[in-house]
Structures are given as structure tokens and as C-alpha cells.
Specification:
With 349 residues, the protein is mainly alpha-helical. The protein has 3 domains: 105 residues; 147 residues, Orthogonal Bundle (hpI Integrase, Chain A), CATH 1.10.443; 63 residues, no CATH class. Strands 1-2-3 form a 3-stranded antiparallel sheet, with no helix packed on it. α2 crosses α4, α6 crosses α10 and α11 runs antiparallel to α12. The longest helix has 21 residues.
Length: 349
Amino acid sequence: MIHRQNWLDVREYLHHLKARLGRDPQTIHKYWGQLRHLLEWADDVPLHFAHRIEPVLPVYLKSARNDGKAIPLTYTTIYKTLVTVRAFMQYAQLAWSRRYRPLPPSWVLTLHPHSKPIVQLHDHQYYSLEEMQRMAAVATETLHAARAQAGACLAFLSGIRPDALASIPLQCVDLANRRLLQLPQLGIRTKNDKSGITYLLDIPELMNVVEAWDQRVRHAFTTPAALWYAPLQRDGLRLKETNRAIVGRTSMLGEDLQLICKQADVEYKSFHKLRHGHIVHARSLARTMDDVKAISQNVLHSSVVITDQVYSDLKTSQVQNAILNLGSSPDMDKDEIRRLIELLKGQLR
């Protein structure tokens, strides 16, 4: 049984992060999932005696799950969980110093994975344009499938994050000008409450799907604050008009994407890989550094370095083709090379 004071301490810490540090609800939800592992590991032992518990937390996490799945947690998940637990424990020692006095500060510093797995060579995963065209070509027979198809197409066209898509209202979808208004003050949930305008790629097959869904939703609803990726009524035959997107709704996006991937005979890779696909495809069309910077700003990145390092890894075959064809293309303009160097210098300062 989970110790009551442990639970209260964790809830107080999450409230501190939300109310005083302004962390967004999605981040708080993620931290809660990670700290649940701590509570379940400690069970009925007060956390100020955590150093006495066996097995130690890093070992416990190797076989821990609280979502019903049989597979072990990944190394990355264990690492992030321990980082969150360390931050909580350090806060607890400061906020409730008398109660947490028995817990040695040196023990908190031992919260890190005991071993790192062998890194496997693998290709960067994302949805390709060809896969998206296959998804867009599916003849949907249900409202559920039509919503899934439209959501996948819009995510690829825009690179929008899953939680932003789940919460975007009609008034933020401006297809006439091929853009999304990612403005938190209008209800959309963006990472770190960042504001911006995102423009859509020009891919007619995908735009046709998005426009058909957009017309359907606007015909059904009366308020511009209603969710574009609308929930369904219990019977699955009608849309439900609401402007409230519950936290954690992104899991439904993944389930919807699995549905349309199955119908299109496309491998499911996770919803976030649509954002990866958007960036990789856009980068393949870029010709100048201005193009690259525009792509980065369009997906609300603060730096082109983030866009390049995290999202734009090439597949092994693409690297092979690029290397084999070095020297066969005209030399890049020297001024363009200088601009690229200066831009990267500025981003890395």
C-alpha cells in the first residue's frame, strides 16, 4: 500500500511545478507517471527512509510497469524517470528538511541507471511521403476512420505536435491561407506555451483529405472554439461539439493512427513520427539556408540546430546516395556557405 505522506509529498511537488514554475499540464502528467514508479517502489516505507529499501530504485525500474504492458521499460524511460525522481528528492530535502533529514544527500546522487544497453545501428524512423499518400488514398467507411485519416494528413502537412492537434480549435485552422494559428490564448496547447503560425506543405492529395474533414466539422459545429479533431458521440456516428481537450488525449491520436495505418498497409511508427516525416520531407525540398531556417521556425523550434540534430537524420540509403554523388553536383555558392557557417555559429553561442 502506498504511504500516504509519500503521495502527499509528490502531489505537493507537482503543484509547485505547475503553480510556481509554470510547467505545462502535459509535462506535469509525464512527471506524475514517472513519480508513480517511485511511490510503488517505496510502497508503505516513508521516502525519507528510501536508502534502506531493497532492491534499489534503478534495479527495480528494470522490471517495473504501471501501464499493464509486459515489456520492460526502455533505458531512456528509466533514465528520465531517475532524473525526475532525483529532482523531487532534492526538492523534498529542501522543502521538508526536518522530515527528510534521515535521507543521505549522497544517496540521492546514486539515482542513475546501473548499465547502458548496447546501441544498435538503426535507421531514423518517420513517415515518408509515399506512405502518407497511401493513407490519404484509403476509402474511409466510418467517422472514426475519417477523423484518423484527416488528423494524420494535417500532422504531416504542418508538423504540428500531437497535443497541439488534439487541442486545436476551429478558429486556429485557416486552410484558405494554408496555415495553423498556434496561439495558446485561443486554446491550443503548444510546448512551453510557444506562439507561432505554421504553414502547410503543398501536397494536394493530403490537403483534399484535410479540407473534406474541415468542411464536415464546420458544418456540424456552431462555435469557432470547438475542437477541430472532435471527439465522437458514444454511437460513433456523430461528432461531439466541445472546446475541452483533456490532458492525455494524445494517446487516442496514436490509436487512431494505428487504425488508418492498418487500412493503408503502412507500418505504424507512433504519431510523433508524422512530425519527423514533415521535417524530413521539407528538408529534402530545401535549397538554401533560408529554406532550412524557415522550416525550423515553421515547426516552432528555437534553433535550426534542434531541427537538424533531432529530426533530420537521413536514412542509411540517403547517406549512401549523398556520399556516392559528392562532386557530381555544381559547387555550392561560396556566399551561401559563409551564410551557413555564420548562422550555425550564432545558433551554437
